Automatic annotation (TrEMBL):
Residues annotated as domain HTH araC/xylS-type: 178-275
Database matches in InterPro entries: AraC-bd, AraC_XylS_family_regulators, Homeodomain-like_sf, HTH-like, HTH_AraC
Keyword Transcription attributed: yes
Name of this protein: AraC family transcriptional regulator
A molecular function (GO) term: sequence-specific DNA binding
Lineage, top ranks: Bacteria, Pseudomonadati, Pseudomonadota, Alphaproteobacteria, Geminicoccales
UniProt keyword list: DNA-binding, Transcription, Transcription regulation
Organism: Tistrella mobilis
Top-rank lineage group of the source organism: Bacteria
């Protein structure tokens, strides 16, 4: 049995919906990695502290403003640097998943880019990667998880890959986007995937995400959340209990509904329902 190490903690999991994706969340105070390789592409984003890596004979330091990228099969080593613990999140992208994501991002089979630098200084990319990791690791909805991962990887490939693949340029996609928007409004409780919506629009998944945001002003998952909240308000106004509303509108549970409702409207579903009931009662008494 492995001994408990109070200075070094890590949690690793394989995602149940995105095949070939591993997720690591770590807080290391003293750990030093021996030289090793991965068959996956590994992408690490520092949340606090700093970590040092050595690859191809060059030493680099990862901080919260940077992203570490290790190509498949590339030897590297490293560990904590400085006095503070190194807290970071990592993606492990298997070979099959990399090919699939490349196809979905660029709409065609591409030569997967190689990354010349193990550490890239790109705060926007770091924020995008962290948002995707937190969404996936935290059990966010399928559409949000897939959208954020595609957007983060497209940013990484385009800015720092060699060669940098060209992204398809959004054009006039108003009609197919509105077709998808109507489908989301008609069935907001469904567990929509990016692939399903992209097929409905007749686009590659990433091209669809970009076109949808351009046409509606919202990412697909944000639009779906709004459609669910619109339906939730109708159910609440009809007197349905918040727990039943959550189940009927695609939210995980009542607390998930409450968080999203308050995030958008500043009040809880219960307060909104009470206000609607109070106004209805006042109107009835006035007649």
């Amino acid at each position: 049995m492995a001994r408990y190490d109070p200075d070094n903690h890590a949690v690793f999991s394989l995602d149940r919906q995105i095949a070939g994706l591993g997720l690591l969340t770590a807080a290391f105070g003293t750990l030093v990695f021996a030289p090793h390789v991965h068959e996956e592409m590994v992408i690490a984003v520092t949340q606090a502290g700093a970590g040092r890596c050595v690859t191809r004979g060059t030493a680099s330091v990862g901080t919260p403003q940077t992203v570490m990228v290790f190509n498949p099969g590339e030897p590297h080593q490293g560990g904590v640097t400085g006095d503070a613990p190194w807290c970071y999140r990592s993606f492990y992208l298997g070979p099959g998943l990399l090919t699939t994501l490349g196809d979905e991002t660029f709409g065609r089979r591409i030569t997967l880019p190689w990354f010349r630098e193990a550490v890239v200084n790109d705060p926007d990319l770091a924020r995008s990667m962290l948002a995707a990791h937190r969404a996936i690791d935290g059990g966010a909805g399928r559409l949000m998880r897939e959208t954020l991962l595609l957007e983060a990887l497209a940013l990484l490939f385009r800015r720092h890959g060699a060669p940098a693949p060209r992204l398809p340029v959004p054009g006039r996609e108003g009609r197919p986007v509105q077709r998808v928007a109507a489908a989301l409004r008609d069935d907001p409780a469904a567990d929509w995937s990016v692939a399903t919506l992209a097929a409905l629009a007749g686009m590659s998944p990433f091209h669809f995400c970009r076109a949808f945001r351009k046409e509606t002003g919202l990412a697909p998952h944000a639009f779906l959340t709004q459609a669910r909240l619109d339906l939730a308000r109708r159910h609440l106004a009809a007197g349905m209990a918040p727990a039943e509303v959550a189940a009927a509108t695609g939210f995980c549970d009542q607390s998930h509904l409450t968080r999203q409702f308050k995030r958008c409207y500043g009040i809880t579903p219960g307060l909104w329902a009470a206000a609607v009931a109070g106004a209805r009662s006042a109107n009835t008494e006035a007649r």
